[in-house]
Amino acid sequence: MDNATASGLKGIGRNHSNYVIPGLYDLSTEDTNWVLTSSFIIFTMQTGFGMLESGCVSIKNEVNIMMKNVIDIVLGGFTYWLFGYGMSFGRGPLSNPFIAIGDFLLDPPVGDALMGQIFAAFLFQLSFATTATTIVSGAMAERCNFKAYCLFSFLNTAVYCIPAGWVWGEHGFLNKLGAVDIAGSGPVHLIGGASAFASAAMLGPRLGRYSEGYDPLPLGNPVNACMGLFVLWWGWLAFNSGSTYGVSGAKWQYAARAAVMTMMGSFGGGFTSSIFSFWRHDGGMDIMDLINGVLGSLVSITAGCFLYRAWEALVIGAIGSLLCVLAMPLFDRLGVDDPVGASAVHGVCGIWGVIAVGLFADNPIPLDTTNGRMGLFKGGGWYLLGIQTLSALCLASWGICSTFLLLYVINKIIPIRMDPHEELLGADLTEHRIRHSQIGLSRAISALAPIQVDLKNIAGVQPIGINPGHERSIDQLRAAEDKLYQWQSYLEQVSNPRITRHKLVADSDITFKPKTPSKPPGNVFSRRPLTRELISDGFYRPNNSELPVIGATISNKLDKDPNFAWVD
Q1: Can you tell me the mean pLDDT for 315-337?
Q2: Among 181, 394, 392, 124, which Cα is nearest to 301's?
């Protein structure tokens, strides 16, 4: 069906095999190719989220936040296949305007004529679901128990899938009222942002977060944060233009328009956040103002990405960016510690993106995305604006309330907040046994020593970036070098005619020649090619070495010394 779009899941249904397929999923070959390609690109947004979030948190928690992003795909994706897809798009007899029921454990058999279309549609919706889930991880960073987060990620699918069905499912009450959301400002970003707000508020701020004011904390890796922005920017193009759900008929024209309007919105947002940051910081540029300003504009343009003119996209992106950079410090003053600003970027800008459709939307002829309606500023009246406002209210309320309830239940099973000493040591060490260097870890361990915190689980963890086996080998080589020096000194004393046997006995000990930096020990560790000659008992020495020739007369003594190692 050429006039189908991703905004409504409208269209005629078709019975095939054991499945009842919405008309939207009746994709042509070229449409299926477009949907699959877009899905692959959207999955790269997980890389962007991971880089952005790891760049915003302290170094001792950067691996932990990446692991949460992996868990979001693994567990969130698994539960989406188990029940999430069926809760959004199932068409069983028990489906109702609140929740869909049916098509669980999706697996069309070989020979089903619609197998390819079903899998393509599922993969595309899966990419959206995992994106909505991973938005929350940044808001919970640096103080959330990893095991509790795994359980949260496993169950959080329901938080996204039920409202996604309201807007995009044939059964959904918002869909039947005429709500419009092409690529997910509401079901994906607003739900994710509202859930992020609730989780950050329920966890409480990080230790010492507001002890010295409300200014943002230093970033762990600003370069990673910027690289994350670029990857998300790239993925957003597929996120929005792929939501035409194909390129057949007139859909390819609106796919192109969606991509351009997405970029136009980000231009407006980036420009506005830059001006704001220069003004706020007396000519300086705050990194997070710019990054989150661009992301906020992208969220804002998503709901109506191919319904706007270029200047409208600029305005919508600019307003979204401004709302974002104003909301971030506001949330901090409310005591909601969101390390990455997800509540502002996805929550506040998601609300604006949904409402903006009711103001600026065109009627995208011949597609039926808006059911023939237009926004208030296009002469379409107040109906679409009212429905969009109702959608924003319903989605925000659901995201906050359901997340509070879910975390409350999880907290009864597994405490969602890390222990204070684990938070001080960092989740990388306490949860994943990854020890960073030069991040104040030794200082934290010393501070915890008087209160007798059990640190057995982290005892002996080696710092990252080194090979312990190589370090032990280097220690053995150094020990061998010391022994060579000692034997050289001993032989020089024995062979010196001025040192009498009487003096050696009187001294009772052998004095060894100390190492002198100005005179290195021959060529034992020289990088120059060494030619070696065989001496008695199979020992070698490098030519031109200052080391003495140690032969059969002392080989037995050396063989008995467990601390001595010969170096070839």
Answers
A1: 96
A2: 181
